Amino acid sequence: MGSGHFAEEGNKKASYLRNLKIVSDTNFMREPKGVYTSTTNGNCYNIKAGPNGTSWGVNFYYGGPGLNAKCP
Fold this sequence. Notes:
This is Neprosin PEP catalytic domain-containing protein. By secondary structure, the protein is an all-beta fold. It has one domain. It contains no helices and five strands. It has a three-stranded antiparallel sheet with strand order 1-5-4, with no helix packed on it. The chain has a two-stranded antiparallel ribbon with strand order 2-3. The protein is elongated and about 50 Å long. The protein starts with 14 loop residues before the first strand and ends in a 9-residue tail after the last strand.
């Protein structure tokens, strides 16, 4: 998934999304509130919230190798 690197490997390794925005029903873009991370199999892939208060806005890292010795 993503680059094949786990989320905790961070910038230049893991895949990421930054400056996330949602569009309201009145066509106004804003940062989402109450965002949280969740995975179903951390041995295959994972996700990690990025730091708040940066120029990246709401952001997260994600990825993993997928099928491997620990991920059936």
